Amino acid sequence: MKKRLILLLSVLLLVPSIVFAAKDIVIEINGKAIKSEQPAIIDNGRTLVPIRFISKALNYEVEWDDDDREVEIENDDAKKGEVEKVTLKIGEKRAKIEIEDGEDRYIDLEVAPAIRNDRTYVPLRFVSETFGHNVDWNNDTRTVIINTVK
């Protein structure tokens, strides 16, 4: 009887922490909170967001290649030396970066893009910083803060 009571109390103590841990991640761009139809997720300590949502918010174009399961994020306003295009492949921890009038390069990622709920999720910090934006994280409020430089 005593073991059951201890087990029950342990479970009851854990339930609130599980509920509170599910608090949505807030994303701010230049001080303004933006909201996606699908929530951001945390994978291996990295925030992933639906690619169309963040690309639209940062004014980039997105192309999806269903055959290769690749997504391209393009900055049509790239100037010489700036990132023009980023290509990410679902499940791969490597991204291709194309520089306007420069050489392509490859970057290793800490977490691979993924498909969740029929949406392509990409690492938010990587995409934002690759295009030159500043990114910060407020752990107390679970907020990603992006400040654009353009």
From TrEMBL:
Domain annotation Copper amine oxidase-like N-terminal: ranges: 29-146
Pfam families per the UniProt record, alphabetical: Cu_amine_oxidN1
Signal peptide: 1-21
Tree of life domain: Bacteria
Keywords: Signal
Listed name of the protein: Copper amine oxidase N-terminal domain-containing protein
